[in-house]
Design brief:
The chain is of the alpha/beta class and 411 residues long. It has 15 helices and 18 strands. Strand 3 and strand 4 form a beta hairpin.
């Protein structure tokens, strides 16, 4: 078969091939191919294996690009399944307060947090939102992210929530990262509904969901102490499902609040954060075949004092995924390699478990595992080229990434 791109003689090739999501012992059951190679026809992978094996199966087209991978490794492009990357404004003043000892809840109670970004996002034009988000997406791409979820949730009114989702669609045509749109009108209670939470829940269900559904693939809700109850979360996610949006959920970031049980009941693909998940919550995730998407960058930047119990989740055969939670308050890093490093050094994952958690498991959390998340024939060639061995991704701020490929193109 004729190919247009061949990367050969890689020191290490991590294909992460096989069905996802991976759980339990399978989460870390990957090994690199030495002297590896990948061949592509346009955006599609046609062969992987050792250089000798791939060379024997292909023919180079006249205009083919051949890349010598000596001294480098190749891993699948990172899939970031939880971001709030679309927003306007800046909350670095809150960072100083947090470093001075203020908690997440104290900052929110004083009118900061999500509501601060809501004010700025409502005031921004579509062009301003797109321009500010484009800068952040470029940062993510440089860190190896090739597919990412993008939530609404900083409008908290129907018009702005829909505008945010339309900006996501626009950005899908103007920059390389493929964006997966998620509606999360139930991110916080807006100021105009303070003291009337039930009324706001009705607005989300009766007005926002019908308006957002044509523009979003997923429906999310912040089910946690001080935000939305399990009963409210269930009603919202079930309404989203009736409108055609698949469910996912913020759960147990601040307290064990019943979010995993909601996720299992509504058949959510993913439950995210889980910093405070308990044994009952872990069992609910396992029984409900829910992926646990962990956000160690958020726990780090919010100074929560602990990280999600990744080892307990893996021991319970719950698939673990990783995300950055890019946002203006607690998701200050656009880097999936930083999330991988925190997963290894703060949550005690092996490198292999963390790499699976950033690729095939994250792809599965967005229902993209048949297209991206691993390097195998028939899939899209999204990949990250690493200087030296792949474990160099753990060298925070050491520029380990040599290049990022999206759909067979070096970005």
């Amino acid at each position: 078969m004729a190919v247009t791109l061949l990367i050969e003689h890689l020191d290490q090739l991590y294909t992460v091939a096989g069905d996802g999501p991976r759980a339990g012992r399978r989460q870390g059951d990957i090994a690199p191919v030495a002297d590896g190679a990948v061949a592509c026809d346009g955006a599609t992978i046609v062969a992987t294996g050792t250089t000798a094996e791939v060379r024997a199966r292909i023919t180079l087209s006249p205009q083919a690009t051949v890349v010598d991978g000596r001294g480098k490794s190749l891993v699948p492009g990172f899939v970031d399944p939880h971001t709030h990357v679309v927003f306007a404004g800046d909350r670095r003043d809150e960072l100083r307060r947090r470093l001075g000892g203020a908690t997440y809840s104290e900052i929110a109670a004083a009118g900061g947090g999500i509501l601060s970004t809501v004010r700025a996002t409502r005031a921004a034009s579509d062009d301003e939102l797109a321009a500010q988000t484009t800068v952040r997406l470029a940062e993510m791409l440089r860190q190896g992210t090739t597919t990412a979820e993008a939530k609404s949730g900083y409008g908290l009114d129907t018009a702005t929530e829909v505008r945010m989702l339309r900006v996501v669609a626009r950005l899908n045509t103007t920059q390389p990262i493929e964006l997966v749109p998620t509606f999360i009108g139930a991110h916080e209670i807006p100021p105009e509904f303070r003291g009337r939470q039930a009324d706001y829940v009705r607005l989300v269900i009766d007005e926002m969901i019908p308006a957002a559904a044509p523009h979003a693939e997923w429906c999310d809700v912040f089910c946690d102490r001080g935000f939305f109850t399990p009963e409210e979360s269930t009603a919202i996610l079930e309404a989203g499902a009736r409108a055609g949006m698949k469910p996912r959920i913020h759960a147990d970031e601040l307290a064990a609040s019943g979010g995993p049980q909601v996720a299992a009941a509504v058949r959510a693909r993913s439950a995210d954060h889980l910093v405070r998940v308990d044994a009952d919550g872990i069992e609910a995730l396992r029984a409900g075949s829910v992926i646990a998407t962990l956000l160690p960058c958020a726990a780090f930047h919010l100074k929560l004092g602990q990280f999600a119990p990744a080892r307990d989740l893996i021991a319970a055969e719950v698939p673990v995924a990783l995300a950055t939670d890019v946002n203006p308050g607690g998701g200050l890093s656009p880097s999936m390699p930083f999330a991988i490093a925190l997963a290894c050094f703060a949550m005690h994952l092996t490198f292999e478990e963390a790499l699976v958690a950033a690729t095939i498991n994250t792809a599965a959390s967005l229902d993209r595992q048949h297209v991206v998340g691993s390097l195998e024939p028939g899939k899209q060639f999204d990949a990250v080229l690493v200087h030296g061995p792949a474990v160099n991704l753990l060298r925070v701020n050491a520029a380990p990434i040599a290049g990022v490929y999206k759909k067979g193109v070096l970005c």
